[in-house]
Amino acid sequence: MLARMDPLQILKAVDRYKPAMMIAPLLIFHVIMEFYPELSKTKTYDLSSLTVGLCSSHGGPWNKEHGKKWFDLTGTYLYSWGYSGTEYFNYPAAGPFLNRLEELAYGKPGPGIRVRIEDFKTREVLPDGERGEIVAKCAPLFDGYWNNPQKTEETLVDGWFRSGDVGSIGRHDTLYFYGKATEAFAVSGYTVSPDEVATIGLNHPDIAEMAVIPIPNPDRPEDNVPKAFVVLHAQSSVTEEELIAWFKDNIAQYKCPREIEIRASLPKSAKGEILKRELIKEEAAKRSA
Fold first, then answer.
1. Burial label, 172 (beta-carbon count in 10 A; 0-12, 13-18, 19+)
2. Per-domain residue ranges for the chain?
3. Which residue has the higher pLDDT, 58 or 185?
4. Which of 123, 175, 268, 270 is the least crowded, having the fewest Cβ atoms under 10 Å away?
5. Phi first, then psi: what are they for 176, rounded to 5°?
């Protein structure tokens, strides 16, 4: 266990202690894959001891491209460790129960764990395949939020925890996670999950990092359109126009970013998560200037 996220220290630890398994949020795997070519110029770090990588749901959804890059680097597979959150003491859906790798699939409920999908407004339990709020019942579960009885009452109902996350249940009880409902926004009457758009975008070979926020629709100011902020891989020369054209071929029209801004970096928290709220503030300030 390391005190902080430092790709160089992680590589040194794997090289020295020869672990067989690495468990971490997706962001850490991403940082290692992104910086390994530069960090290994002066020393080659031996990662051959790793037999499997397991990434948690913290930091947003993952995609097949992440798994491919990790395999190319280490020769081992990257699996979802599962879907969870700080309110759980267990994983409501565990990735190792999956018998295949699948984009946005985070696992299956284990013994003694129940997961269902509810409509955010009506609280109706939705059938398999429909998107709604991930609601789970398992033991142990947290008792409530510190000094916030109202939030506790709203989220803990008859032993079921309402996560605020958007998901669905597919074949063989597989849980799919698309991102936080609080970050979702409406486009032409449809709901867009920023994490889902970013997950698809990260399949583009030139995109290293990506975040999506809503901006006003220039044609209908009362509506929104997606805007993407991307960081490119080193040596990439792809343009914003080329990226938009790629999205038009790979995603539903209402999810397609109307604008794309290429940046050298994106604002991040101490945990390394992209701070979309900072991008929203920057964009609002820019448009009001």
1. exposed
2. 1-83, 104-179, 184-288
3. 185
4. 270
5. -110, 135
The pTM (predicted TM-score) of the whole model is 0.74
* Beta-carbon contacts of residue 174 (< 8 Å; ≥ 6 apart): 98, 102, 105, 107, 108
Domain 184-288 bears CATH identifier 3.30.1390.10: no
Structure tokens at 137: 């019942």
Supply φ then ψ for residue 158, to 5 degrees.
55, 40
> Which pair of tokens denotes residue 219?
């044609």
Encode pLDDT of 194-243 as tens digits: 988 998 898 898 998 899 999 999 888 789 999 999 999 888 999 999 99
Q: Which tokens hold the place of 132?
A: 């709604």
Q: 104-179 in CATH: which number?
A: 2.30.38.10
DSSP E strand boundaries for the chain: 21-25, 52-56, 77-83, 93-94, 105-107, 114-118, 132-137, 156-157, 160-169, 175-180, 185-187, 190-192, 207-216, 224-232, 259-263
- Joined together, the tokens standing for residue 71 give 């395999």
Q: Which residues contact 116 (CB under 8 A, 6 or more apart)?
A: 125, 126, 135, 136, 160, 169
- Rounded distance, CA 42 to CA 210, Å? 29
Fold for the domain defined by 1-83? Rossmann fold (3.40.50)
- Convert the pLDDT of each residue in 16-30 to its tens digit: 999 999 888 777 887
